[in-house]
Hints:
Blueprint: H1 9-20, H2 30-42, E1 47-51, H3 54-64, E2 72-76, H4 81-90, E3 93-97, H5 111-114, E4 119-125, H6 134-144, E5 147-151, E6 159-160, E7 163-164, E8 171-175, E9 188-192, H7 195-205, H8 216-227, H9 229-247, E10 253-254, E11 269-274, H10 279-295, E12 300-302, E13 316-317, H11 322-330, E14 331-335, H12 343-362
Parallel strand pairs: 2-3, 2-4, 3-13, 4-5, 5-8
Antiparallel strand pairs: 1-9, 6-7, 8-9, 10-11, 11-14, 12-14
Helix pairs in contact: 1-8, 2-8, 3-4, 3-7, 9-12, 10-12
Bound molecules: pyridoxal-5'-phosphate (PLP).
Amino acid sequence: MTRWPPHDERILELLREALADGSWSAYHGEWIDRLEATLRQSFSAAHIRLTCSGTIAVELALRGVGVTAEHEVILAGYDFPGNFRAIEAIGARPVLVDVAPGGWTIDVEQLEPARTSQTRAVIISHLHGQLAPVARIRAWCDDHDVALVEDACQVPGASIAGRPAGAWGDVAALSFGGSKLLTAGRGGAVLTSSDAIVQRITVFADRGNDAFPLSQLQATALLPQLDSLADDTRRRASAANRLRERLKSTPGISLPDELERDSVAAYYKLGFQLLETDMEQAVGVRARFLEHARTCGLPIGEGFRGFHLRSRRRCRKVGELPHTRSASERTVLLHHTALLRDEAEIDRLAHDLSAAIASVSSTR
Ligand SMILES: *Cc1c(COP(=O)(O)O)cnc(C)c1O
């Protein structure tokens, strides 16, 4: 098993420095300043607001674009559960649209049928190694004066058409949670280049003090990881491509397509869907698959549960959300630690995954 986070001497060095000079106990200081400067550069954002989690970063992002209790916010029926809660926390109404068939990102075609005069924002998430079609979404948002909130929590280091994931939205969220690609155990950030957005966030989050802070110690842990982010992203992407190549002719499984050449994928989790055609059987087949895969020691689990079963009192649904249901019942996620391995180990991984798929097919 690949350990996460990996042991990193550079983090120890910075920690020693912060402990030796007492800077670790300051609310603000060199480490936070350096982290903010690095993030501004890496994500082409004029402003960074560091936060105590990605979940709160999404809520602050919504508040930043002016979402209030009078508004509706469009999001995909399959998404991180905290994003639905963030909309509710403001008192606004979640409006669910379907994901694109076979994947996990919002279906652009569903935005227009979802729009009303109350629509203030759209949340899009890049999930499980798949990047949302941001250029088209950006254009739609601009045409209709709807704010774009980009959840880049799973994809730091990714880019789309040469521009970083997280730089397409009016505002974006990052997570530095324990299992994430950049980790400080906890933490997050809001990114934006809009003065008005950062101003609204400041008004909400500063209560005489920063109410959702990230500490100097956390900043020391993140700095070296940002230095190696581009290299690590490349290593994981090449492992994911190798795995895709090995598994592409395996029946019963669908992996997201490889990206256009001007884009770079990031893999917090590598997602795929088990192609069980009888939807009534899908959940059971997945459970058996996971049981088998875990006995081989694979770091693997199921995807999000989806919001398609949420009550109509809590949200408005656009259509029946069939692809959301499919994603919520068939998704399997391989954790990124599986991707930081050498080629022979990736081949073994592909073999174990095929065997687990074959084992559930034969018991159908
Ligand atoms: C992890 C994650 C978050 C929130 O992150 P926390 O820091 O754990 O609160 C938000 N969105 C997505 C897609 C995530 O994967």
